[in-house]
Design brief:
7-stranded antiparallel β-sheet; 48% strand; disordered N terminus; 6-stranded antiparallel β-sheet; mainly beta
Length: 195
């Protein structure tokens, strides 16, 4: 009963903040086809100065913002449509709203950045939805989530906000018994590339 009251009294229920990503374990990759040419389309480098990747996590007493300032990747454009995205995030560069929490997030309780220094997402985009593989904390899951895409003569951008369950990626540190950490984490991404 006490644990239930603690959960109900939580600072903010992050599972209600953004749509949940659909999560699946990807099927094993088939053998590559022989001599298949790469699909047509331009891979445009993501501009980190105009892009951002962040997360929001919560425990019973407080909500925390986490930023991932170092990342690289590309947006793939085919004609006048965004067709794909690839992003690699340097996990050791993460920064939270608390210096103590920043150090804790980097250690074995959370992201183990010394042995798993990068996270990666590779996906396709169609009809306002992104589907692809997220590798986080050494675990790969297929995610599907909505995105808003904008393309003009000079710029391609994509924005999304969705929730994931950290347990799906083996990030299971519970927090203190009287200050439990929520499993839902809000991910917010804005990616911009020049044409």
């Amino acid at each position: 009963m006490f644990a239930l009251l603690l959960v109900l009294a939580c600072a903010e229920d992050l599972s209600q903040k953004a749509p949940a990503a659909r999560v699946e374990t990807p099927a094993p990759a088939p053998a590559p086809p022989v001599e298949t040419p790469a699909p047509a389309g331009a891979a445009l480098a993501i501009d980190p100065a105009r892009s951002s990747i962040s997360a929001k996590g919560a425990k019973i007493t407080k909500t925390h913002d986490i930023n991932f300032p170092e990342f690289s990747g590309s947006l793939k454009v085919e004609g006048d449509k965004l067709a794909g995205v690839e992003v690699v995030v340097k996990m050791a560069a993460l920064v939270s709203d608390s210096e103590k929490l920043t150090g804790h997030l980097k250690n074995q309780d959370f992201f183990s950045v010394d042995t798993m220094p990068e996270s990666k997402f590779v996906g396709t985009v169609a009809d306002g939805a992104v589907t692809g593989d997220l590798t986080l904390h050494g675990v790969t899951k297929q995610l599907s989530f909505p995105a808003t895409v904008s393309i003009d003569a000079t710029t391609v951008s994509a924005e999304t906000e969705f929730t994931i369950n950290r347990q799906d990626f083996g990030v299971s540190y519970p927090g203190k018994p009287d200050d439990l950490i929520q499993d839902s984490v809000v991910i917010k991404v804005k990616l911009v590339a020049s044409r």
